[in-house]
Structure formats: C-alpha cells, structure tokens
Write the structure tokens for this entry.
Amino acid sequence: MSNEEKILTNETPEVETITYEDSMVDERIKRAVKELGFEAMTPIQSQAIPVMIEGKDILGQAQTGTGKTAAFSIPLLMTVDPENPNLQAIVLCPTRELAIQAAEEMRKYAKYMSSIRVLPVYGGQDIMKQIRSLKGNVQIVVGTPGRVMDHMRRHTMKMNDVKTIVLDEADEMLDMGFREDIETVLDSMPEEHQTALFSATMPKPILEITSKYLKEDAVSLKMPAKELTIPLVKQYYYEVAKKNKEEVVARLLDYYNPKRSLIFCNTKRMVDELTENLVGRGYFAAGLHGDLSQVQRDHVMQGFRNGSVEILIATDVAARGIDVSGVEAVFNYDIPQDTEYYVHRIGRTGRAGKKGRSFTLVVGREIYKIRDLERICKTKIKPRTVPTVADIKASKSEKILSDVLELVQSEDLSEMQRIIEAKLDDEDCTALELAAAFLKQKMGDEPLEDIPTEDYFADRKKRKSSKNWGDGDRGDRKSRKGHDRDRKGFSDRKGHKGDKKSDKDKVRAKDLDKNGNLKKKKPKKDSWWESFTPEKKKKKKHE
C-alpha cells in the first residue's frame, strides 16, 4: 500500500462536538475564546485540535467557514515554547488577506499569552519592515508562500527551531501557482517536524504533496457531506434583464437592509462600475480586486471591518480568505464560472450559528446554471420576485418607525415634545400630519415604477410559438391568412366587401354545361398506389 493510500485510510472515527470548557485547551485560550462568544467546537476543531497537540501530521478536508483557522491556531499556541524567542511555527496561506486575518485571529486566541508573538508576512508590504519585525522574537509566522520563501533565501527566517508547518486552503494555493514555492518551503523544514494540510477539495496535486511530505501515520479528517454546505444560508435567485441588474441589487439592499453585505462580480471592470454607481446612489460601498495596491486593499478591508463600509464588492480572487463576521447577505451579481466558487461565496455568511441570505441574479439562459448548482451542491435555490415599490416603501417605513419607537422607549423626549407642541400651536397642522411629513422626508425618493418579472422558460415558449407575422401571435397569423383569402375573392360569405364576383362567377367555365348547370363529376380514378393494394387486385381478378 502506498503512503498516499495509507493517509487516506487513517481516518479517525467521527467525534461528537464538545464545548471548549470541557476540552483540553489551555485555560488562557479558553478565557479568550469565551470573550469572543464561542462555546462549542465545530467538528473540524474537535477532531483536529487533539491530534495536532499530540504531534501527528494531519490531512484535513473542510469547506470555508467551518472553523479551520481555530483548528490549527489553538494547537500552535499551546505547543509553542514561550521561553524560546526563535521561530517555531509557519502557516502558509494563499492570499495576503487570509494571512492577515489568520494572524489577527491567532492573536485574539493568544490575548492572555503575552509572551507569544505572531507576525503576518506577505507580498506588497515593505520587506525591510518585515525583516525588522522578524528580529523581534517572533515565534509564529503567517504568510504567503512567495514572501516566506523570500525570507528563507535572505536567511531572515531561520528554520532551525521550526516544529510545525500548516498549509491552509492548500487547493487554492495550488490553483494560484504556488506549488513550487510550497515544495521549496517544505524541503527546507527540519527533519523532525509536524505538517498539517487543510483543503476544501482533494485534487490529485494535493494527494501528491501529502504522499511526499506527510508521515505514514498522518490522520485524515474528512468532514461529512452535511458539513460541506452551510445549512443556515437561505438561497434565492431572481430572473432579471441584464439592464436591470443594478436596480435590482439596489432594491434588494433597500428591502432587506442588511448591515453588512458582500457582492461578487466576475470581472474587475464590473466591480469598479458597480461600486461607482452604488456610491452615486448613496450607499456606503467599496470595491476590492487585484489591481488595487496593498495600501488600498488594507484601507478597504479596514473600513469593511469597522462598519464604515457596509457593502464590499469584490472578485472571487480578491475575496479569497476574507473572513469578516457579521456578513448578513451575499449577492451573486454574476453567476460564478466554477461551482466551488458559489459554495465559497455563500459561505461568507451564515457563520457562527447566525442566519444568512444569498441572492443570485440570473439573466436568460443562466437559469440552467442554477439547476446545475442545485444538482451538484445538493441544495435548493428558491425563486423570488423583485420587491415592488410598495414592498420597499413598507420595509423602509417599518425600519424607520422601529428605530423611532426604540428612541421613545429609551430616551427622554420631553424637550422635543415642547418644541413640537409650540410648533403645532403656530402652524395649521396636526401632529399626525407633522409625523407623516417627517417620515416622508426620512424615506427619501422612491423608485418610480416596478421592475417587470423575467421568466426565461415562458419567454422561450412564447418566442417558439411566434413567427414573423404581424405582432408575432399565431392567432393573428391565421386571421391575416383568412383576410388574404377574402381579398382574393375566395370567401364563402356573400356580399363581403372584398368579393369582386358573384358565387356563379367564381365557378370555372369548364365545370358548366351548355345550359349553365354544373356538370356531374366522374368517379375518382384509383390512384397508382391504390391499384396495387390487395383489395383492388382481388376486385380486378373477379372482373
């Protein structure tokens, strides 16, 4: 049996989810986790943490949003020697964003472990600044493969004391062309070390790496199929015309009013265009794609985290690794080209036990892609109609009035009441009229008209039944055909305006006898085919 086959068969039995309080986790980490609001471990955490603490190699398969970062961060923090100032663990991530977020999350778990330092290193940032930071006793480095390899070549990262290396989102790193860099880093590791590889999928290149670099007793942790999807995400799609996509997104934002949203586009150009248009409509939106500088990317992500940016519009590549809590809605402005991207996109919401929504805009034949997504992902994406003007008006007014009623219950409004009473005495209006005016002013301008509902299958059926006759209706075609017959004088209706001859004039002369009466028709001769039928042959034989 090959090493690869052994790894795949060394699967641990399914472990029931346990609470952090009942786990073997360090008390200082438990305290930090409790402050973050987490109580129970996710399946990948409950299985991976004990194995990593034990020191065994791991091959973990789990989708985005299942808690992989904590699954390797907590064991690293527990196994690192705080008395040793040298580098002891490396985490490789596919993108800068994921490296930064993984380092930040690790620091949160290490809040009460002041002697442990975690540093993110990635391309786009001044390498000299990173070199100075690495000299300050860093025990854990979280970085992208290319930048980690650069530091190794410069000898600014010394590998002598490194005991653990983690490959996070390994399939993504391979897709981005980092295989050579990853293998260079793995080849530079000390002989005795632990390797943990986490990936959403297990393509052949991943299995080749595991076969080469993971020990024979490596434990494979594969989450069951039910864990590969996000059941708390309600998925909807809207059939719209291409020209109405922007307006539909705006109305969905107004209707559902999510506090934090992610909108995915397939191209950088569309990200820029949609961002500019939504900002022009008054939304707090920002775009994120590969053409932005690192300073710009950091600024956008900081705004999205602190709430000054409510809507982040991004491409799939730029959004890799984004893990911001509190995302209430994900919009697929464009349907992703890859099914896995769809799972990754909607996995950005509905996390940590919270509910989320995903909205996908479908244009024409793209409806077939929805069917494919449902079949492959084994999920249900429900059709929805675009909210009407009345729906949006009701939703907005409900939100405003709810906020106002909250003020009524929590604030002292006596001074405001005196101002209103004085104004009502001076003006010829009621308190109800004044409140209605305030509400109208707060709601702002409403859309002028409803967006027509699109239905690809209905439209296709209509197009199929229509021909190039008049306005394309089959009934009109028949009517026109009848009208043409009338105009040519072949109608049976007497006295019709189109008739130019009487009924007798319509009869051909050769069909009349000399007295003007219709000739008697001769019996119809047998056709050539009928003369050869068995019945005719029998008849001729008797004759």
